[in-house]
Amino acid sequence: MHFAKLSHAMSRNELEIPSGVGGGVMLDVLQGFVHELRAAGLPVSMTENLDAMRGVEQIPLTERDAFREVLAATLVKSFRHRRAFDTVFDVYFSLYTGGVDGEGEPGGEPGDQDEAGGIPGQQGSGGSGEGMSNEALAEMLMAALMNMDQDQLRQLAAMAVTRFAGMEPGRPVGGTYYLYRTLRQLDYDALAGRLMERAAQQAGGEGEGDPETDLQARFAREEYERRLRELRDMIEAEIRRRLVADRGVEAMARTLRKPLPEDIDFMHASREEMQQLQRAIEPLTRALAARLAQRRKRKNRGHLDFRSTVRHSLSYGGVPAEPKFKSPRPSKPEIMVVADISGSVASFARFTLQFVYAIAGQFSKVRSWVFIDGIDEVTRFFQESDELTEAVQRVNTEADVVWVDGHSDYGHAFEVFRDRHLAEITPKTSIILLGDARNNYHAASAWVLKDLRQRARRLYWLNPEPRGYWDTGDSIVSEYGVHCDGVYECRNLRQLQRFVAAVVEA
Amino acid sequence: MAERFSSVDDVVTRLRSADYLADTGIAGVVYLADRLEKPVLVEGPAGVGKTELAKAIAEVTGSRLIRLQCYEGLDESKALYEWNYKKQLLRIQADREHESDWETVEADIFAEPFLLTRPLLEAIRAEEPIVLLIDEVDRVEVETEALLLEVLSDFQVSIPELGTIVGRQRPIVLLTSNNTRELSEALKRRCLYLHIDYPELEREKEIVRVRVPEIDDALAEQIAQVVRSIRALDVKKAPSISETIDWARTLLYLGHDSVDSKVIDETLHVLLKYQTDIAKARKELVDTPKVGTGLPASRG
What we know:
The complex is a heterodimer. By secondary structure, chain A is α/β, with parallel strands linked by helices. Chain A folds into 4 domains: 2-93, no CATH class; 118-205 and 212-247, no CATH class; 273-299 and 331-505, 3-Layer(aba) Sandwich (Rossmann fold), CATH 3.40.50; 302-329, no CATH class. Helix content of chain A is 54%, strand content 7%. Chain A contains 20 helices and 6 strands. A 6-stranded mixed β-sheet of chain A has the order 3-2-1-4-5-6, with helices on both faces. In chain A, β1, α14 and β2 (365-371) form a beta-alpha-beta unit. In chain A, α8 crosses α10 and α9 (188-204) crosses α10 (213-247). In chain A, 38% of the residues are buried. Chain B folds into 3 domains: 8-77 and 118-195, 3-Layer(aba) Sandwich (Rossmann fold), CATH 3.40.50.300; 81-115, no CATH class; 201-287. Chain B is 49% helix and 13% strand. In chain B, the strands form 3 sheets. Chain B has a 5-stranded parallel β-sheet, sandwiched between helices. At the A-B interface, α3, α4, α9, α10 and α12 of A face α2, β1, α5, α9 and β9 of B.
């Protein structure tokens, strides 16, 4: 029955089934969709797949928003993965629903709608939007943004794409390129200011010279910024839709595939990915801290508390039915983090420090040092500021880590560390060393680590480089590694989280 | 069995009649949960109306709400059932005089009158329609989660002395989580997943108007704007919907009919609970409300 519903919906929309899908049967599309989700790293189980199939029978494809939510509810069980899901969804279902405007006839009768000309990529440009000047388009766009007329805005977005993106079929360029071209032509960055001006002019007549204008202006600006984000999303969706029409669903999905936040490589993260990491790290650490606290509580059940047991047996007529235990004093490890913060591994060090301090409650004491060729203790930054991001920021700007030339010198940094702090290392201390061990051919001084390990409880090394690169060029991981209790590859949050959990429990 | 909702729109309309404003996502998942007879795992920041959703569904479907509040250390005897030891002991002691044989006593003390039903068993044995709310499921240990699995997938429980008890009906089951830990795969697999986030401006404004009916439109709008503004700041604990509503009530009670910097300054502590957050918001919204690049002051 859902097939009937679907094919009805499809014939009404005069769909062109993308070449990669074929058949146009919902189940095929869904299978391709699930396959792509798995390829993007989302764990979709068999049961969830079946649920999704049953789910789509309940909601017609034409109710796009509800349809999306239903699929998400059955397939995505973590908020972190929602973004990846949305990307894949947009690719797979962009041709089926919600074209240029709600009722969209993509590729259908272009002359039908004045502005929405030339939709799927092949036609490039066309449609009667051509008659309009760029100024007129900009003017209409402003008007639509002022009134927040969704349908019109979507049509104008499509028009802007036709006119400004310069899309050529078959050209191997990502959607971002087209997006930025379009936005630049629209003078997107200045739009918020222009909208504000316009609003001020309109309100000006009423002469509201009260002190509230500043606050009001702030709200107005936030509102316009939100609208502009919406416009940007519309443009992006429109570009993606045309690209899918041009290249086919599967090719497009492959191009857009991005790592999940927990799989983003520290060393090669783009700026946007850095922000994602930043957002992902907080809930991850919170979850880890809660789990560790619970586990510790359960694991260390103390000795039988005889007095309390006898006391409680009174309510069972003297039968000791409920044994009572003493709660033990938990022994918490002490942590010392020593991190290389030279350019190549800086972001890795930053995230690791943030991670360790976020679960600082799990340790009796956390101290940290950063180095390049000189070394500096940075514990004070974390003690002084309430917020981790701020502390990390100060580490990057204020720590005194340059000794000679600002190129990593592990040997010297370790020697200084040993001279100053060896006496403070106790059998309760775990030391974590962070870095890629690229020593710029300086002296290794690996004997220092041997000394440290003799006094410490554990000595670990975390390396943000892929294992294959270790010991190539000036990397001397193994030389240090022989003196450590473990050397771990730590390229993303997933590996970092696993390691930290292991350290706490050790 | 009778389906409770006829369409997604029906969910929206009826929840609205219980003063709960659902967006498409919420309504879609509730509808699907009804049709597929699956439990829903609801996640999201504290105070966005996860528990309220369960209450609203119960109200509009005319069901009884059974609530299991989870906490660390929750176990079978608090979630499912427990034998009433003390009563059993009394029964045995009272029996000493009559000297009846052990078999009778045993059959006697492991029977219905000595069984203490806890929320899960109560939900399964219920005759009338119910909504089962398992609140803050992330607080129980991973091992305890397992005892929920049988209930969630088959809606039955096994009691060694009494056998397996199968539910007469499939209630709507909601589990809420504040995401303090990752729930087990097994649990997630059995549930539909719904993430509720802070609402958009329009919806928040509507919520304020529905929950605080005395408020006028302009004030509700301003309230929603201020709250959105604060959430956009990098605060430790962003104001929840319930705090927004509290704030609206406060303003009303104090007799303010519009929001200005002074009013915000005086009542900020209703919205924000950390001193650092309050200081930050005060700095942004009260002390230096001048923002924007080269904004002309609107003057006639």
